[in-house]
Every structure is written in structure tokens, then in C-alpha cells.
Specification:
3 helices; 0% strand
Length: 65
């Protein structure tokens, strides 16, 4: 079971590295995370929704309520 968990984390790390490098290799095809986040956060309702979600997540999982 330990080997399965370690393999899973290694696959996730490799996927993150590939996704981070993809915009530099093919800039016209894959957008960077910063560009995507900038576009998403440009609208006020989206920012409010994300803030409410983070508040809800913190309230339920970090306070033990």
C-alpha cells in the first residue's frame, strides 16, 4: 500500500511539472496558470465566489465545526 501511495504522489508531481512546462514549450496552445488566473479573477462575482468557498472550506475543515 505504501508503494501505491508513493507512486501516486510521484505521478502527481510529474503531471504538475509537465503542466508547468507546457506553456513554455507551446505558448500558443497552452496558457500559463498565471494568465488563466488573471482572466478568471477579472470579474467581481468570481472573486466573491472564490472567497466564500475558501471561507466555507476553512470553517468546516480547519475549525472542526
Amino acid at each position: 500500500m505504501h508503494a501505491f501511495t508513493v507512486t501516486g504522489y510521484l505521478v502527481l508531481v510529474i503531471a504538475i511539472l509537465v503542466l508547468a512546462a507546457a506553456p513554455h514549450v507551446r505558448p500558443g496552445v497552452v496558457v500559463s496558470f498565471g494568465s488563466m488566473l488573471e482572466q478568471i479573477m477579472s470579474e467581481r462575482p468570481v472573486r466573491v465566489t472564490i472567497m466564500v468557498f475558501w471561507w466555507w472550506l476553512g470553517w468546516h475543515f480547519l475549525t472542526g465545526a
